[in-house]
């Protein structure tokens, strides 16, 4: 039977609890067990005490008859300080699975040290009030338990932003609160911001508003601080559906994708991680809108795409999609939207359609590729004539790339940064140049390497069409669309499964006819 928490706290006040006084009487601790589950995969045998809506559970190897009573009292007092607190179950463990306190719903898992230091309080606020946002729980916890916002917060923010161009600190994304992505100074500044913004939101709409993203309050808070910032991207980051996962420092879901970012060479800190996640999510939103509008017949199937995990861990050498395991492996900054497009447009792997997989994914994502993503190619095209190591064939091919790029885009390669989507004319120019001059001994991986050689296990036996590379597949798909040979709906259906592929390309001979027609067009349009 649960002992009323109010009674316990009343004892505390009457007895004048201090470091040297005896603890108030608590109900007897009882034996229990929490079985492992997907959320917290650990079997925990417990010594527990129940107080109204608060359960306090010590793992048996963390339980001490004296110290645990004092810790339980501290938890009870902290819980009582949270206005409107609901059910909460606090597990105090000798060896928790995570270094930082972990929350899932109304359950909180932490060490005794985290309770003693007060580090666990934001997690307690999160569990007791069903506040899932990291910064909201941090900010409210500091408000409730005596945190102080420095008078010069606006100046501190300005100094940080001037030293971190393009930072998304003001989004208060979870990356800014974890040691995996942020240093101690950044975490401290993010915590100050969290308390300041939480206080502003409470003043505007009450404590309950902190259960939402609160993105709509960002402009007003910034104005109060006298700060100016472009808020659209910051608000998008605030509105992501963040959750906690014991294995990853951050996790959120967008559409059918659960993203689990970890530090990488190209995403080492909070600024880089938040920037890349924002770029991915805005790109994904645009991709979904594009497919719904331009492939309406296929959209019904795309909407039913099974859930995918998006992994950034270094377990794969290349970015790819494991359709069978429903995992997108991202191993480079530029591959992100391409791989998400694969996940949306492949239901059934089949060798015949291998080239369409790549053509459709590139068509759906090449606009997303930035100048910086392909800077190596632009640099070669612009400067290869001055490189002593370049062969005569390489100089010739890149000269052709420069010529065709200008025909396609209207600007020189040296001005490619002025284009909204410079990768589109670049990839086409590289492809056309190599198709026009197959006798030249030049290797450009995305143009020269057949799709079948990239992920050979998916394409056995090798079909004639899989000799096309990523870039050649893309350029051919663009031709089919631009010349009305197929609609995007037909190409997406061809990518989804074998039935759709055979509806678009009934035989390999028909594919060969179309491809020969395409090569004639390339020679007619782009030969000197």
Q: How is the secondary structure organized here?
A:
Elements (H helix, E strand, L loop, with lengths): L4 H11 L14 E5 L9 E8 L2 E6 L7 H14 L7 E6 L8 E3 L2 E5 H6 L3 H9 L4 H11 L8 H11 L20 H22 L12 H8 L6 H7 L2 E5 L2 E7 L2 E4 L9 H25 L1 H7 L5 E4 L8 E3 L4 E3 L6 H10 L8 H12 L9 H9 L8 H18 L13 H14 L8 H4 L2 H4 L15 H13 L5 H9 L1 H7 L3 H19 L2
Parallel strand pairs: 3-4, 4-6, 9-10, 10-12
Antiparallel strand pairs: 1-2, 2-3, 5-6, 7-8, 8-9, 11-12
Architecture overview:
The protein has 4 domains: 5-130, no CATH class; 137-229, no CATH class; 240-345; 364-526, no CATH class. The protein has 22 helices and 12 strands. By secondary structure, it is α/β, with parallel strands linked by helices. It is 47% helix and 11% strand. The strands form 2 sheets. A 6-stranded mixed sheet has the order 1-2-3-4-6-5. It has a 6-stranded mixed sheet with strand order 7-8-9-10-12-11, covered by helices on one side. Mean pLDDT is 91; it is low at 5-24 and 456-462. A hairpin with a 2-residue loop joins β2 (44-51) and β3 (54-59).
Would you count the extended β strands for me? 12
Strand order of the largest sheet: 1-2-3-4-6-5
Tally of distinct domains: 4
**How many DSSP helices?**
22
Q: What's the gist of this structure?
A:
By secondary structure, the protein is an alpha/beta fold. It has helices at residues 5-15, 67-80, 112-117, 121-129, 134-144, 153-163, 184-205, 218-225, 232-238, 270-294, 296-302, 336-345, 354-365, 375-383, 392-409, 423-436, 445-448, 451-454, 470-482, 488-496, 498-504, 508-526, and strands spanning 30-34, 44-51, 54-59, 88-93, 102-104, 107-111, 241-245, 248-254, 257-260, 308-311, 320-322, 327-329.
């Amino acid at each position: 039977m649960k002992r009323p928490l109010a009674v316990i706290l009343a004892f505390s006040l009457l007895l004048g609890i201090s470091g040297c006084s005896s603890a108030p009487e608590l109900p007897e601790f009882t034996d229990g067990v929490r079985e492992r589950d997907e959320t917290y995969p650990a079997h925990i045998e417990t010594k527990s005490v129940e107080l109204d809506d608060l359960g306090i559970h010590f793992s048996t190897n963390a339980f001490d008859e004296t110290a645990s009573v004092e810790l339980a009292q501290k938890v009870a007092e902290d819980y009582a300080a949270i206005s409107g607190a609901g059910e909460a179950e606090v597990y105090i463990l000798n060896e928790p699975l995570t270094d930082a306190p972990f929350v899932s719903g109304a359950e909180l898992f932490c060490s005794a040290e985290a309770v003693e230091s007060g580090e666990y309080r934001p997690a307690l606020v999160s569990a007791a009030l069903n506040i899932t946002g990291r910064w909201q729980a941090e900010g409210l916890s500091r408000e409730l338990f005596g945190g102080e916002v420095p008078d010069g917060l606006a100046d501190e923010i300005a100094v940080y932003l001037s030293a971190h161009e393009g930072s998304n600190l003001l989004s208060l994304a979870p990356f800014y609160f974890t040691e995996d992505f942020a240093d101690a100074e950044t975490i401290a500044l993010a915590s100050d911001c969290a308390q300041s913004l939480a206080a502003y939101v409470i003043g505007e709409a009450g404590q309950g508003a902190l259960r939402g993203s609160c993105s709509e309050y960002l402009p007003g808070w910034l104005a109060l601080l006298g700060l100016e910032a472009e808020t659209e991207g910051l608000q998008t980051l605030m509105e992501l559906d963040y959750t906690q996962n014991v294995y990853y420092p951050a996790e959120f879901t967008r559409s059918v994708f659960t993203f689990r970012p970890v530090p990488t060479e190209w995403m080492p800190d909070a600024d880089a991680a938040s920037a890349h996640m924002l770029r991915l999510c805005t790109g994904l939103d645009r991709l979904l809108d594009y497919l719904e509008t331009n492939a309406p017949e296929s959209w019904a199937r795309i909407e039913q795409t099974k859930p995918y995990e998006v992994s950034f861990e270094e377990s794969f050498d290349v970015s790819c999609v494991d359709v069978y395991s429903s995992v997108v492996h991202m191993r480079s900054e530029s591959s992100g939207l391409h791989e998400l497009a694969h996940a949306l447009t492949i239901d059934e792997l089949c060798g015949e359609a291998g080239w369409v997989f790549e053509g459709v994914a590139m068509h759906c994502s090449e606009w997303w590729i930035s100048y910086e993503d392909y800077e190596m190619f632009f640099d070669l095209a612009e400067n290869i004539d001055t490189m002593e190591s370049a062969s005569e064939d390489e100089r010739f091919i890149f000269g052709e790339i420069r010529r065709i790029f200008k025909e396609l885009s209207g600007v020189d390669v040296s001005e490619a940064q002025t284009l909204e989507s410079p990768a589109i004319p670049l990839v086409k120019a590289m492809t056309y140049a190599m198709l026009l001059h197959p006798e030249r001994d030049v290797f450009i991986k995305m143009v020269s390497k057949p799709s079948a050689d990239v992920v050979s296990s998916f394409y056995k036996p090798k079909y004639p069409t899989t000799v096309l590379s990523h870039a050649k597949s893309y350029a051919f798909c663009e031709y089919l669309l631009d010349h009305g040979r197929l609609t995007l709906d037909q190409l997406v259906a061809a990518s989804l499964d074998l039935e759709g592929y055979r509806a678009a390309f009934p035989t390999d001979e028909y594919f060969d006819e179309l491809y020969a027609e395409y090569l004639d067009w390339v020679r007619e349009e782009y030969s000197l």
